[in-house]
Amino acid sequence: MNKLVFATNNLYKVREVQALIPEHIKLLSLKDIGCFEDIPETKETIEGNAIQKTEFIKNKYGFDCFADDTGLEVNALNGAPGVYSARYAGPQRNATDNMNLLLNNLKPSDSRSAQFKTVIALSINNNISTFTGICEGKITKEKHGDEGFGYDPIFKPLNYNQTFAEMNLALKNKIGHRGKAVKQLVDFLNSLYQEY
C-alpha cells in the first residue's frame, strides 16, 4: 500500500479527493501524521501556495505528499478574490462572510462570469509536479443549496442550472475544478506506480 499525505485540514476536501484516489494508495491527513500547525500560505499565486504547502510537509515530515490551493476568479473584480479566496472577508476565513462580501462587491456589475481554479502540487521521489483544473461558470445573485463548502452556493458552472451546493458529490467531482486537477494527479500516480 502506497502512502500519500494530503496536506489539508479541510475534511470536505479529503472526502472529495478520497473518492477519486485509486485503492492502492492510502491517503493520510495532516492529523494522521501529527501535523497540527498552520502551514504557510504566503505566495502571491495559487500555484505558489500549493507548492509551498507541499514542500513544507515534505521537508518537515518526510512524507510524499500533495497539497492543493483553490481560488475563485471573478472577471468583473479583476480576478479577485483569487489567491485570497479563503480569507476574502478577513482572517476568520468564514464562508458566509466571504460570499456576502463578494455578492455585495458584484452588485454594480452586469457581468457575473467567473472561474474556479485548483492547482495541486505533488512531491514524490523528490520531484514536484503540478496539475491544474479550471471550471468556468457564473456567480448567482443569491445563495442556493447546502452541499459542499466555500463559495459553492453562489457558483453555477457553465451549462448547468444548479450551483455546486445543489449538486451531488459525484457530479461536482466530474465537472469541478478540483475533480479535474485530481484526475490529472490520479493518472500521473497510476502511470508512476505501474513503472515499479
Characterization of this structure:
There is one protein chain. With about 200 residues, the protein is α/β, with parallel strands linked by helices. The protein has a single domain, classed as Maf protein (Alpha-Beta Complex), CATH 3.90.950. Helices cover about 30% and strands about 25% of the residues. It is built from 5 helices and 7 strands, in the order βαβαββαβββαα. Strands 1, 2, 3, 4, 5, 6 and 7 form a 7-stranded mixed sheet that branches. A hairpin with a 2-residue loop joins strand 5 and strand 6. Helix 4 packs across helix 5. The protein is globular. It starts with a strand and ends with a helix. The model has no long low-confidence stretch (mean pLDDT about 90).
